[in-house]
Design brief:
The chain is mainly alpha-helical and 137 residues long. Helix content is 77%, strand content 0%. It is built from four helices and no strands. The chain has a domain of 94 residues.
Length: 137
């Protein structure tokens, strides 16, 4: 793995924490709304599962990146070598992308709760978003 300078890793972790906290809160809000919904059925169960995965993945990303940020901040009281940053970095990045993919899936599948026509539309839009996201990874 490429060794990145500590200030760069610190800023990267900081930005990932901000985005993960925002999107995790968004996912948790959707989850709460779906859980109290009067609807029942397979589509709702799939959406609840997807939002749960998304919210939890973003929470994991926040904690992993917080550890990374703490270890790379100037004045950290212990000696840090690059190999110690491997686990929080990998876990944080993987959790972040799982959260994004799950959230895109939920947005793409959400239309199926209303109608087939809206379901097709949101699936197409969600698929385009997924492809564009993968393009920028």
């Amino acid at each position: 793995m490429i060794e990145l300078p500590f200030p760069y890793l610190n800023e990267l972790a900081s930005q990932t924490i901000f985005i993960s906290a925002f999107l995790g809160g968004f996912s948790a809000s959707i989850l709460g709304t779906l859980i109290v919904s009067k609807r029942k059925g397979r589509a709702l169960n799939i959406l609840v599962s997807g939002t749960s995965v998304s919210a939890i993945a973003f929470i994991v990303a926040v904690f992993a990146m917080t550890k990374l940020m703490m270890m790379t901040i100037p004045g950290y009281p212990f000696e840090v070598i690059q190999s110690e940053l491997f686990m929080p970095r990998i876990i944080g990045v993987v959790a972040f992308f799982i959260g994004i993919m799950a959230l895109l899936f939920v947005m793409g599948a959400s239309g199926w709760l209303q109608s087939k026509k809206l379901g097709v539309f949101t699936t197409i839009i969600g698929s385009i978003g997924l492809l564009l996201t993968i393009l920028f990874i």
